[in-house]
Specification:
221 residues, alpha/beta, Spore Coat Polysaccharide Biosynthesis Protein SpsA, Chain A, eight-stranded mixed β-sheet, two-stranded antiparallel ribbon, 7 helices, globular
Length: 221
């Protein structure tokens, strides 16, 4: 079945304490976003890559591609004011019946094994997301109290999140809601079941300077 990857890269450098958008910050001498795209291309070069960037970042991206001689084929979509609107823009480029993966542009350490497993299993399950067990103690905090929770019942959610194109396109026809925190929550609002698979501890989302340092260490290994 046809495979697309919508790579959402609309972040800023605010939490990175940088004037450069975090997807453009250098990791091992190249922008983070290039590493992310390369992981999908190396997993299977037939995956069609759709990169969603704010319109104001398009010229910067084109300049970076020339500078780094980056020639992996991809299409660029103009991002919206929210993640929901950005993914919806990316879906406009998915014209065939397919499996669609939606991935954070600042998760450059994902393995080919996980990418291929996600696509393959989604052909049967229609909606699949990678998760990892929460390893630290967690508490529920209210205005005047807090209490410990059983962490064995909680998992952190990663990307790529993979769906049949029919299902994902239908989900994004809904009106946007504050409760939509990721693609799985959008699909679940249709009453559809979202299946889970084991993610990877190394598949971190780069949001702070320490994340970038960790990524440098992991890549050097």
């Amino acid at each position: 079945m046809k495979r697309y990857a919508i790579i959402v890269a609309g972040g800023s450098g605010q939490r990175m304490k940088s004037s450069i958008p975090k997807q453009f910050m250098e990791l091992a001498d190249r922008p983070v976003l290039m590493h992310t795209m390369e992981k999908f291309y190396r997993a299977n070069a037939s995956i069609e890559l759709i990169v969603v960037l704010p319109s104001s970042h398009h010229s910067t991206w084109e300049t970076l591609c020339r500078k780094h001689q980056f020639n992996i084929p991809h299409q660029i979509a103009a991002g919206g004011m929210s993640r929901f609107k950005s993914v919806k823009k990316g879906l406009e480029y998915c014209s065939e019946e397919s499996i669609i993966a939606v991935h954070d542009g600042v998760r450059p350490l994902i393995s080919s094994d996980l990418i291929l497993k996600m696509y393959k299993e989604t052909e049967l399950k229609r909606a699949l997301i990678p998760v990892c067990p929460v390893s630290e103690s967690i508490r529920l905090v209210t205005e005047d109290s807090s209490k410990a929770l059983d962490r064995s019942q909680y998992y952190s959610v990663q990307t790529p999140q993979c769906f049949s194109s029919e299902l994902l396109q239908a989900a994004y026809e809904q009106e946007e809601r504050d409760t939509f925190t990721d693609d799985a929550s959008v699909v679940e609002a249709l009453g559809e079941k979202v299946h889970l698979c084991e993610g990877e501890d190394s598949n971190v989302k780069l949001t702070s300077p320490k994340d970038l340092l960790l990524a440098e260490i992991l890549m050097s290994r």
